[in-house]
Amino acid sequence: MVISRWALALSAVLLLALIGCLDFDEQTVYVEHDRENDRLVVIIDYQGFHSTKEDIAQAKEQLQEAIDNRTVRFFDNFSFVFPLREMRDNLADPEAEETQQLSVEMRQGLVRLLDHIRLLNGGFYMDPAGRICGAQVLVIENAAQSVELANNLLNASILENAEEFESADSDEAEWVQSVLESARRGHRWIELDGHSLLVSGPVPESVLREGRRELVEDLLDPGDEDRDVHWRALRAILGNPVLLWHEDGVLRVRCGYVSAPSEFVTKPRGGACKPNLVDYITETYGLHLDANLARYLVQPDAAADTEAERAARIMAPRLARPERVRALIHRLKTAPDEPYWARLREEDLPMPKEQQAGLADEQLLERWEQWLSAKAGPSEKDQGEEAQADG
């Protein structure tokens, strides 16, 4: 299939890697186009970190490498993996083995694109089900310019690999020529429309029909060995705001809503999470994300001196109501020596006896919403004491 050749041709742009035994049970991704600042804000929430092997030494090493390399993972522990720092280092070195196959123009273009991207590691937290979770904030500055640059790189990559395309089987010749012709015309493979991303490319009707048939057969009859993986994939396909249509020989895929930010469940919950990294992550990195989120829920303009605090300040106003409640209740329970939070506890605030997995009680949510909108932030003195306690 020419699609595999296309994937190879674009490997200079999508640098993929394999991750071993470090895994997560569930993943959600929030996407917003902050039009006022022309930036894309992407919040990646990894839920249920665990090691797939009994010997967790490798998972510990991979986790630290992921943090150091500012690695972003989408869909699964083996799918799309972007170690942003390592990618930058390799592209900055023309002698690096990974970049020697790239033209000078391609390498420089990728460097410019990565310069628009910054990743903030927000740290870890424990959800009501006792799973270790973590979050990252990916910010793509100059969104319009970044999308334009990405399209230019995609077209350049296709044309640089034209010979590879043209060596495709004869029954794929029409598709190959339409892809090459689109690249020569400067096709916009990616477009930003409101908060949504529109991805498009030429695909013959015959190819689309065959691909649809194979997908349906594979999903409906996956075989016993892969049944769980396939049903989770089907849940992801049907449960996300993704619209696909074919028009005038072009396949178009809209990801997300135009008028509002979207949340994607990129890896539906499987429920097979092992608690074998809970103690290690808690003792090594700490569980500070909820505390930081609570701080910026109470006082959105508070200073953010660390990477984790900057991530939390971006995340806080974008949290869904259950996550806001979780962070605030956690803060009340775990800040016994901080004057500001101690005073709040004296106000007979709604405190659940036990936090259960899933949504909190609606009445509790409503009372917390009222409290949040009515309360002023802590004084500068209390902020200083809180920062010392967190440190």
Mean pLDDT: 79
* Low-confidence blocks of residues: 1-19, 350-361, 375-391
Strand order of the largest sheet: 5-6-2-1-11
Give the DSSP E fraction (strand runs of 2 or more residues): 15-25%
- Identify the overall geometry: globular
Count helical runs.
16
Key words describing this protein structure:
single chain, 391 residues, alpha+beta, 2 domains, five-stranded antiparallel sheet, four-stranded antiparallel sheet, 11 strands, 45% helix, globular, disordered N terminus
What report would you give on this structure?
The chain has 2 domains: 2-267, no CATH class; 290-390, no CATH class. Helices cover 45% and strands 21% of the residues. It has 16 helices and 11 strands. The strands form 3 sheets. It has a 5-stranded antiparallel sheet with strand order 5-6-2-1-11, with helices on both faces. A 4-stranded antiparallel sheet has the order 7-8-10-9. Helix 3 (84-92) runs antiparallel to helix 4 (104-115) and helix 4 runs antiparallel to helix 5.
Offer a quick outline of the entry.
It contains 16 helices and 11 strands. Helix 3 (84-92) runs antiparallel to helix 4 and helix 11 (289-298) crosses helix 12 (307-315).
